[in-house]
Amino acid sequence: MHITFENFAKVKYLFAFLALVIVAISTYFTNGLVKSVAQEEERKMTLWAEATRKVASAGEVTDFDFLLKVIEDNTTIPCFILDQNNNVVGSRNISVPQSLGQTELDDFWRRKRTNYSDLHDPIVIEIDHDTRQYIFYDNSLLLKRLSYYPYIQWGVILIFFLAVLFFFTLAKRAEQNKVWAGLSKETAHQLGTPISSLMAWVELMKVQNMAPDVIPEMEKDVARLQTIADRFSKVGSIPELKPACLNDVLENTLAYMRRRVSAKVVISTAYQTDGPVNLLLCVPLFEWVCENLCKNAVDAMEGRGSITVNVALHENKVCLDFTDTGKGIPKSKFKTVFQPGFTTKKRGWGLGLSLVKRIVEDYHHGSIFVKQSEIGKGTTFRILLNLPSKDE
Questions:
Q1: Domains annotated on the chain, with CATH
Q2: Rounded Cα–Cα distance for residues 25 and 32 (Å)
Q3: Handedness of CA 253, 255, 256, 257 (dihedral sign)
Q4: I need a labelling partner for 270 at 20 to 30 A (CA). Which of 41, 258, 262, 380 fits?
Q5: Radius of gyration over alpha carbons of the chain, in Å?
Q6: pLDDT of residue 236
Q7: How far apart are CA 229 and CA 234, in angstroms?
Q8: Measuring CA to CA, which residue among 273, 246, 238, 245 is closest to residue 358?
Q9: Is 125 helix (H, G, I), strand (E, B) or coil?
Protein backbone atom coordinates (compact mmCIF):
# COMPACT_ATOMS: atom_id res chain seq x y z
CA MET A 1 0.00 0.00 0.00
CA HIS A 2 1.38 3.40 -0.96
CA ILE A 3 1.26 5.78 2.03
CA THR A 4 0.60 9.33 0.89
CA PHE A 5 0.19 12.54 2.88
CA GLU A 6 -3.60 12.28 2.66
CA ASN A 7 -4.10 8.71 3.84
CA PHE A 8 -1.24 8.57 6.36
CA ALA A 9 -3.38 9.72 9.29
CA LYS A 10 -6.25 7.40 8.28
CA VAL A 11 -3.94 4.38 8.09
CA LYS A 12 -2.40 5.27 11.46
CA TYR A 13 -5.76 5.51 13.25
CA LEU A 14 -7.12 2.42 11.47
CA PHE A 15 -4.12 0.39 12.56
CA ALA A 16 -4.46 1.64 16.14
CA PHE A 17 -8.16 0.71 16.16
CA LEU A 18 -7.49 -2.79 14.81
CA ALA A 19 -4.71 -3.31 17.35
CA LEU A 20 -7.03 -2.31 20.20
CA VAL A 21 -9.77 -4.65 18.91
CA ILE A 22 -7.33 -7.56 18.67
CA VAL A 23 -5.96 -6.98 22.15
CA ALA A 24 -9.44 -6.49 23.63
CA ILE A 25 -10.70 -9.77 22.14
CA SER A 26 -7.56 -11.62 23.21
CA THR A 27 -7.78 -10.16 26.72
CA TYR A 28 -11.44 -11.19 27.00
CA PHE A 29 -10.71 -14.83 26.09
CA THR A 30 -7.55 -14.91 28.20
CA ASN A 31 -9.44 -13.66 31.24
CA GLY A 32 -12.04 -16.35 30.64
CA LEU A 33 -9.30 -18.98 30.43
CA VAL A 34 -7.68 -17.67 33.61
CA LYS A 35 -11.01 -17.88 35.41
CA SER A 36 -11.57 -21.46 34.22
CA VAL A 37 -8.08 -22.55 35.28
CA ALA A 38 -8.54 -20.90 38.68
CA GLN A 39 -11.85 -22.73 39.22
CA GLU A 40 -10.24 -26.01 38.16
CA GLU A 41 -7.39 -25.51 40.63
CA GLU A 42 -9.89 -24.71 43.37
CA ARG A 43 -11.70 -28.00 42.65
CA LYS A 44 -8.39 -29.87 42.70
CA MET A 45 -7.47 -28.42 46.05
CA THR A 46 -10.90 -29.29 47.46
CA LEU A 47 -10.42 -32.88 46.26
CA TRP A 48 -6.87 -32.88 47.63
CA ALA A 49 -8.15 -31.66 51.00
CA GLU A 50 -10.79 -34.40 51.11
CA ALA A 51 -8.19 -37.06 50.26
CA THR A 52 -5.92 -35.70 52.99
CA ARG A 53 -8.79 -35.82 55.50
CA LYS A 54 -9.62 -39.41 54.71
CA VAL A 55 -5.99 -40.50 54.98
CA ALA A 56 -5.70 -38.77 58.37
CA SER A 57 -9.01 -40.31 59.61
CA ALA A 58 -7.89 -43.80 60.63
CA GLY A 59 -11.44 -44.80 61.47
CA GLU A 60 -12.61 -44.62 57.84
CA VAL A 61 -12.16 -47.68 55.67
CA THR A 62 -11.13 -46.64 52.14
CA ASP A 63 -8.65 -47.20 49.30
CA PHE A 64 -5.45 -45.62 50.60
CA ASP A 65 -3.53 -46.21 47.36
CA PHE A 66 -6.06 -44.11 45.44
CA LEU A 67 -6.04 -41.34 48.07
CA LEU A 68 -2.24 -41.23 48.16
CA LYS A 69 -2.20 -41.03 44.36
CA VAL A 70 -4.57 -38.03 44.49
CA ILE A 71 -2.30 -36.34 47.02
CA GLU A 72 0.88 -37.08 45.06
CA ASP A 73 -0.64 -35.92 41.75
CA ASN A 74 -0.55 -32.32 42.95
CA THR A 75 2.73 -31.28 41.31
CA THR A 76 1.86 -27.69 40.34
CA ILE A 77 -0.13 -25.97 43.12
CA PRO A 78 1.97 -24.72 46.09
CA CYS A 79 0.27 -25.51 49.38
CA PHE A 80 0.90 -26.37 53.01
CA ILE A 81 -1.13 -27.64 55.99
CA LEU A 82 -1.34 -26.08 59.43
CA ASP A 83 -2.74 -27.79 62.51
CA GLN A 84 -4.78 -26.10 65.22
CA ASN A 85 -1.58 -24.87 66.90
CA ASN A 86 -0.29 -23.22 63.67
CA ASN A 87 2.35 -25.87 63.19
CA VAL A 88 3.18 -26.93 59.64
CA VAL A 89 2.35 -30.62 59.26
CA GLY A 90 3.00 -30.88 55.53
CA SER A 91 3.65 -29.00 52.28
CA ARG A 92 3.91 -29.57 48.56
CA ASN A 93 5.58 -27.64 45.71
CA ILE A 94 7.17 -25.16 48.10
CA SER A 95 10.95 -24.73 48.22
CA VAL A 96 12.00 -24.29 51.85
CA PRO A 97 15.58 -23.03 52.47
CA GLN A 98 17.47 -25.65 54.47
CA SER A 99 19.70 -23.13 56.28
CA LEU A 100 16.87 -21.40 58.19
CA GLY A 101 16.73 -21.53 61.96
CA GLN A 102 13.49 -22.19 63.81
CA THR A 103 12.66 -18.49 64.26
CA GLU A 104 13.41 -17.73 60.60
CA LEU A 105 11.45 -20.80 59.55
CA ASP A 106 8.43 -19.64 61.57
CA ASP A 107 8.64 -16.22 59.86
CA PHE A 108 8.90 -17.95 56.48
CA TRP A 109 5.66 -19.89 57.02
CA ARG A 110 3.94 -16.86 58.55
CA ARG A 111 4.64 -14.83 55.38
CA LYS A 112 3.43 -17.69 53.23
CA ARG A 113 0.23 -17.94 55.25
CA THR A 114 -0.43 -14.20 54.89
CA ASN A 115 0.26 -14.18 51.15
CA TYR A 116 -1.81 -17.27 50.43
CA SER A 117 -4.73 -16.03 52.58
CA ASP A 118 -4.87 -12.87 50.46
CA LEU A 119 -5.46 -15.03 47.38
CA HIS A 120 -7.66 -17.84 48.65
CA ASP A 121 -9.60 -18.64 51.80
CA PRO A 122 -7.96 -21.57 53.62
CA ILE A 123 -9.68 -24.95 53.24
CA VAL A 124 -10.70 -26.45 56.60
CA ILE A 125 -10.11 -30.20 57.15
CA GLU A 126 -12.11 -31.71 60.00
CA ILE A 127 -10.22 -34.81 61.09
CA ASP A 128 -12.66 -35.44 63.94
CA HIS A 129 -14.80 -33.40 66.30
CA ASP A 130 -11.79 -32.05 68.17
CA THR A 131 -9.12 -31.88 65.46
CA ARG A 132 -8.91 -29.52 62.52
CA GLN A 133 -6.29 -28.70 59.93
CA TYR A 134 -6.09 -25.83 57.43
CA ILE A 135 -4.81 -25.90 53.86
CA PHE A 136 -3.31 -22.69 52.45
CA TYR A 137 -2.56 -22.67 48.73
CA ASP A 138 -1.25 -20.36 46.01
CA ASN A 139 -1.93 -20.16 42.27
CA SER A 140 0.10 -22.49 40.10
CA LEU A 141 2.89 -21.16 37.90
CA LEU A 142 0.72 -21.75 34.83
CA LEU A 143 -2.12 -19.67 36.25
CA LYS A 144 0.27 -16.87 37.19
CA ARG A 145 1.68 -16.79 33.68
CA LEU A 146 -1.80 -16.72 32.19
CA SER A 147 -2.69 -13.83 34.51
CA TYR A 148 0.31 -11.82 33.28
CA TYR A 149 -0.26 -12.72 29.63
CA PRO A 150 -2.74 -9.87 28.80
CA TYR A 151 -0.30 -7.27 30.14
CA ILE A 152 2.56 -8.79 28.17
CA GLN A 153 0.36 -8.83 25.09
CA TRP A 154 -0.57 -5.17 25.60
CA GLY A 155 3.13 -4.34 25.84
CA VAL A 156 4.03 -6.32 22.70
CA ILE A 157 1.20 -4.74 20.72
CA LEU A 158 2.23 -1.27 21.93
CA ILE A 159 5.87 -1.85 20.93
CA PHE A 160 4.77 -3.21 17.56
CA PHE A 161 2.44 -0.26 17.02
CA LEU A 162 5.19 2.23 17.88
CA ALA A 163 7.57 0.43 15.51
CA VAL A 164 5.04 0.55 12.67
CA LEU A 165 4.25 4.19 13.43
CA PHE A 166 7.97 4.97 13.37
CA PHE A 167 8.28 3.19 10.02
CA PHE A 168 5.32 5.11 8.58
CA THR A 169 6.80 8.37 9.85
CA LEU A 170 10.12 7.60 8.17
CA ALA A 171 8.32 6.66 4.97
CA LYS A 172 6.32 9.88 5.09
CA ARG A 173 9.44 11.97 5.69
CA ALA A 174 11.29 10.17 2.90
CA GLU A 175 8.42 10.93 0.54
CA GLN A 176 8.43 14.58 1.63
CA ASN A 177 12.17 14.76 1.05
CA LYS A 178 11.76 13.39 -2.45
CA VAL A 179 9.00 15.90 -3.20
CA TRP A 180 11.05 18.80 -1.83
CA ALA A 181 14.21 17.75 -3.67
CA GLY A 182 12.44 17.05 -6.94
CA LEU A 183 10.39 20.25 -6.86
CA SER A 184 13.36 22.40 -5.89
CA LYS A 185 15.73 20.98 -8.51
CA GLU A 186 13.11 21.26 -11.24
CA THR A 187 12.31 24.85 -10.25
CA ALA A 188 16.00 25.81 -10.26
CA HIS A 189 16.42 24.12 -13.64
CA GLN A 190 13.40 25.87 -15.13
CA LEU A 191 14.58 29.26 -13.87
CA GLY A 192 18.07 28.76 -15.20
CA THR A 193 17.26 29.18 -18.92
CA PRO A 194 15.25 32.45 -18.75
CA ILE A 195 17.76 33.94 -16.27
CA SER A 196 20.65 33.20 -18.64
CA SER A 197 18.66 34.76 -21.48
CA LEU A 198 17.88 37.88 -19.43
CA MET A 199 21.52 38.27 -18.48
CA ALA A 200 22.48 38.13 -22.14
CA TRP A 201 19.86 40.75 -23.04
CA VAL A 202 21.14 43.06 -20.27
CA GLU A 203 24.69 42.78 -21.60
CA LEU A 204 23.47 43.50 -25.13
CA MET A 205 21.63 46.59 -23.89
CA LYS A 206 24.82 47.78 -22.19
CA VAL A 207 26.82 47.39 -25.39
CA GLN A 208 24.21 49.28 -27.42
CA ASN A 209 23.84 51.88 -24.63
CA MET A 210 20.08 51.35 -24.50
CA ALA A 211 18.06 52.75 -21.57
CA PRO A 212 21.04 53.36 -19.23
CA ASP A 213 18.69 54.36 -16.40
CA VAL A 214 16.78 51.09 -16.63
CA ILE A 215 19.69 48.69 -16.91
CA PRO A 216 20.82 48.89 -13.21
CA GLU A 217 17.32 48.04 -12.02
CA MET A 218 17.10 45.19 -14.49
CA GLU A 219 20.43 43.88 -13.23
CA LYS A 220 19.08 43.92 -9.67
CA ASP A 221 15.99 41.93 -10.70
CA VAL A 222 18.10 39.44 -12.66
CA ALA A 223 20.43 39.05 -9.66
CA ARG A 224 17.38 38.50 -7.48
CA LEU A 225 16.14 35.76 -9.81
CA GLN A 226 19.59 34.22 -9.72
CA THR A 227 19.47 34.20 -5.91
CA ILE A 228 16.06 32.52 -5.95
CA ALA A 229 17.30 29.84 -8.35
CA ASP A 230 20.35 29.32 -6.14
CA ARG A 231 18.11 28.85 -3.09
CA PHE A 232 15.99 26.23 -4.82
CA SER A 233 19.07 24.35 -5.97
CA LYS A 234 20.36 24.24 -2.37
CA VAL A 235 17.02 23.03 -1.00
CA GLY A 236 17.20 20.13 -3.43
CA SER A 237 20.57 19.00 -2.03
CA ILE A 238 22.55 19.11 1.21
CA PRO A 239 23.84 22.69 1.51
CA GLU A 240 27.30 23.52 2.81
CA LEU A 241 27.40 25.55 6.02
CA LYS A 242 30.07 28.24 6.14
CA PRO A 243 31.10 30.75 8.83
CA ALA A 244 29.02 33.92 8.56
CA CYS A 245 28.14 36.94 10.67
CA LEU A 246 24.53 36.64 11.76
CA ASN A 247 24.25 40.40 12.28
CA ASP A 248 25.24 41.12 8.66
CA VAL A 249 22.89 38.46 7.29
CA LEU A 250 19.96 39.84 9.28
CA GLU A 251 20.63 43.48 8.40
CA ASN A 252 20.98 42.72 4.67
CA THR A 253 17.79 40.68 4.62
CA LEU A 254 15.74 43.17 6.64
CA ALA A 255 17.04 46.06 4.51
CA TYR A 256 15.78 44.21 1.45
CA MET A 257 12.41 43.66 3.11
CA ARG A 258 12.08 47.32 4.16
CA ARG A 259 12.33 48.40 0.54
CA ARG A 260 9.54 46.06 -0.47
CA VAL A 261 6.90 46.52 2.22
CA SER A 262 4.56 49.35 3.03
CA ALA A 263 5.91 52.38 4.86
CA LYS A 264 3.30 51.57 7.51
CA VAL A 265 5.28 48.48 8.47
CA VAL A 266 8.23 49.16 10.78
CA ILE A 267 10.99 46.50 10.82
CA SER A 268 13.58 46.79 13.58
CA THR A 269 16.27 44.72 15.27
CA ALA A 270 17.46 44.42 18.87
CA TYR A 271 20.77 42.77 19.76
CA GLN A 272 21.30 41.55 23.32
CA THR A 273 24.83 40.42 22.63
CA ASP A 274 28.26 41.84 23.42
CA GLY A 275 29.25 41.91 19.75
CA PRO A 276 28.66 40.30 16.34
CA VAL A 277 27.48 36.70 16.40
CA ASN A 278 29.26 34.27 14.09
CA LEU A 279 27.52 31.07 13.05
CA LEU A 280 27.78 28.28 10.51
CA LEU A 281 25.12 29.17 7.94
CA CYS A 282 24.02 28.59 4.42
CA VAL A 283 23.47 32.31 3.87
CA PRO A 284 21.08 32.14 0.86
CA LEU A 285 18.80 29.68 2.68
CA PHE A 286 18.88 31.46 6.02
CA GLU A 287 18.03 34.74 4.29
CA TRP A 288 15.06 32.88 2.82
CA VAL A 289 13.98 31.90 6.36
CA CYS A 290 14.06 35.53 7.51
CA GLU A 291 12.20 36.73 4.42
CA ASN A 292 9.45 34.13 4.81
CA LEU A 293 8.91 34.98 8.47
CA CYS A 294 8.76 38.70 7.66
CA LYS A 295 6.38 38.15 4.74
CA ASN A 296 4.06 36.06 6.89
CA ALA A 297 4.15 38.76 9.56
CA VAL A 298 3.29 41.47 7.00
CA ASP A 299 0.35 39.38 5.77
CA ALA A 300 -0.82 38.80 9.35
CA MET A 301 -0.70 42.55 10.05
CA GLU A 302 -2.48 43.34 6.77
CA GLY A 303 0.13 45.91 5.81
CA ARG A 304 0.23 47.89 9.07
CA GLY A 305 2.23 47.27 12.24
CA SER A 306 5.73 46.45 13.44
CA ILE A 307 8.16 43.54 13.20
CA THR A 308 10.95 43.20 15.74
CA VAL A 309 13.82 40.74 15.44
CA ASN A 310 15.51 40.15 18.78
CA VAL A 311 18.88 38.37 18.98
CA ALA A 312 20.15 36.97 22.27
CA LEU A 313 22.48 34.28 23.57
CA HIS A 314 21.20 31.49 25.81
CA GLU A 315 23.86 29.08 27.08
CA ASN A 316 25.40 27.58 23.91
CA LYS A 317 22.61 28.68 21.58
CA VAL A 318 21.63 31.79 19.63
CA CYS A 319 18.01 32.81 20.12
CA LEU A 320 16.21 34.77 17.39
CA ASP A 321 12.70 36.02 18.11
CA PHE A 322 10.59 37.35 15.22
CA THR A 323 7.73 39.29 16.83
CA ASP A 324 4.87 40.93 14.93
CA THR A 325 1.72 42.84 15.87
CA GLY A 326 -0.56 40.79 13.64
CA LYS A 327 -3.79 38.92 14.22
CA GLY A 328 -2.17 36.04 16.14
CA ILE A 329 -2.41 32.26 15.94
CA PRO A 330 -4.74 30.02 17.99
CA LYS A 331 -2.82 27.82 20.42
CA SER A 332 -4.24 24.72 18.76
CA LYS A 333 -2.46 25.72 15.52
CA PHE A 334 1.03 26.26 16.98
CA LYS A 335 2.34 23.05 15.41
CA THR A 336 -0.07 22.84 12.50
CA VAL A 337 1.29 26.06 10.92
CA PHE A 338 4.51 24.22 10.01
CA GLN A 339 2.75 21.42 8.14
CA PRO A 340 2.83 21.47 4.33
CA GLY A 341 -0.42 22.79 2.88
CA PHE A 342 -1.53 24.77 5.94
CA THR A 343 -2.45 28.33 5.00
CA THR A 344 -4.98 31.01 5.91
CA LYS A 345 -4.54 32.82 2.59
CA LYS A 346 -6.99 32.49 -0.28
CA ARG A 347 -4.11 32.16 -2.75
CA GLY A 348 -1.46 30.32 -0.79
CA TRP A 349 0.27 26.97 -1.13
CA GLY A 350 1.03 26.66 2.59
CA LEU A 351 4.71 25.84 2.00
CA GLY A 352 6.40 28.93 3.48
CA LEU A 353 6.64 27.90 7.14
CA SER A 354 7.13 24.26 6.17
CA LEU A 355 10.13 25.35 4.12
CA VAL A 356 11.37 27.50 7.01
CA LYS A 357 11.18 24.54 9.39
CA ARG A 358 13.04 22.32 6.96
CA ILE A 359 15.86 24.85 6.46
CA VAL A 360 16.26 25.54 10.18
CA GLU A 361 15.98 21.98 11.50
CA ASP A 362 17.24 19.73 8.71
CA TYR A 363 19.97 21.95 7.25
CA HIS A 364 21.08 24.10 10.21
CA HIS A 365 20.34 21.54 12.96
CA GLY A 366 18.38 24.10 14.98
CA SER A 367 14.75 24.39 16.01
CA ILE A 368 11.85 26.74 15.32
CA PHE A 369 8.51 27.02 17.11
CA VAL A 370 5.80 29.46 18.07
CA LYS A 371 7.03 30.91 21.35
CA GLN A 372 3.81 32.80 22.07
CA SER A 373 0.81 34.22 20.30
CA GLU A 374 -2.29 36.11 21.31
CA ILE A 375 -5.30 36.65 19.09
CA GLY A 376 -5.46 40.27 17.98
CA LYS A 377 -2.09 41.20 19.49
CA GLY A 378 0.60 39.33 17.63
CA THR A 379 2.92 36.33 17.39
CA THR A 380 6.52 35.48 18.23
CA PHE A 381 8.40 32.81 16.29
CA ARG A 382 11.59 31.62 17.99
CA ILE A 383 14.61 30.14 16.22
CA LEU A 384 17.35 28.39 18.21
CA LEU A 385 20.71 27.79 16.53
CA ASN A 386 23.80 26.13 17.96
CA LEU A 387 26.93 28.20 18.46
CA PRO A 388 29.92 26.70 16.64
CA SER A 389 32.53 24.90 18.72
CA LYS A 390 36.10 26.11 18.92
CA ASP A 391 37.19 23.49 16.39
CA GLU A 392 34.55 24.69 13.93
A1: 5-143 (no CATH), 239-386 (3.30.565.10)
A2: 11
A3: positive
A4: 262
A5: 39
A6: 60
A7: 9
A8: 238
A9: strand
